[in-house]
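From the shared-data thread, chain only:
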Amino acid sequence: MFPISDLIPGNAVIGQSGGPTAVINQSLVGVVEGLRLGLHAAGVAKRVFGMRHGVRGLTKGDLYDMTDMHQDRLDSLAMTPSAGLGSTRDKPDAAYCERVLEACKKHDVRYFFYIGGNDSSDTCRLVREMAVSSDYDLRCFHVPKTVDNDLMENDHTPGFPSAARFVAMACMADFMDNISLPGIKINVVMGRHAGFLTAASALARRRDREFDDVPSATTDGPQLIYCPEVPFDLDRFAADVEAIYAAKGRCHIVVSEGIQDKEGTPIGAKLIKNAQVDAHGNVQLSGSGALGDQLGDLLKERLTPVGGKAPRVRADTFGYVQRCWPDASPVDRLEARRSGQYAAMLPLHGARDGSVAIVRTGSGSEAYLGAAGEPYASDYKRVDLKAIAAKTRHMPKEFLSGHNNVSKKFIEYCLPLVGPLPGFERL
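Structure, as tokens:
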């Protein structure tokens, strides 16, 4: 344990940034609990403040005192989806971070905790570097959060297992709908650059048949899964769908919002006319059903026989609903809370900055193999902010199978994270 005398007394602030999740409040409560047991109990962290809407609230002095918040309220908050303090999409530049640092000085903040993705870790890095250069002792810590599961150094990130659970269960139900009233169904799932959430749709398939490397022995949907890591070809896509539709009279498809061609051009940008773009020039995907509609129109055009009737094609864009669905994965709840607690304890071990990463210590193969498998287990470690900040993790090649499927390795990786899934009877 680091000597308490070497820690600067002052206040602690906690913020939430980026897209809300089903468990981001678990991380918030975890930090509060960790600070109460550690720095606050030791008299180092005098008050524990929450920033309203992240660093934007800090710069405006909009702080919420959580120091003496009753444990019952904390427990209730932890089980509440979305960001309890409010979030922000602000991506601070140097001038913005200067204002953040000045606000820390004004409010005597010495311990800065930010819950979010790679942009949030970059904010921590910039603020910490400015504090060092101005000789202000400010300890900055990043707590991981992202449904996209795209943070480096992490086996997976809080928020992803719960969103993956939603995608899997939504696709299970949607496939049953598809076989009841056959047609072509397209589901567009979040993930501009990383395909983990899209791949989670494969958990919707039955696993009651033997197979080797590829989970394709069952014909359950989704029969086709397209992740952004594999170049997307419109002609090949139409041919894939046509083959399944011709054989079964139906086809169930899951597509990442971030699918792109071999040149790296997003398919949405090619198909969607007059598309809205965000502040960074990216075509709006999650808040629009345009990609699914355009892919549907393409299939109607390509699959309609001469003089015949167009196939029935429908598309849904899961959008924001997958982020905060109030049926969180049990693993996700636990790990999100412990990630916050671990971050709060880092200053007591001499850390002046860093990010928390989840490390898998037990494979969890029992979720796939039953009693013959190994239980799932995880631990936490501190990693340098530079290893996380502004970097994106992609689906590894071993998680993919061909251009329209995922591998058995991905199923084994993801299944222990989402929690028990229902079983459906088929006639």
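The CA atoms of residues 107 and 206 lie 55 Å apart.
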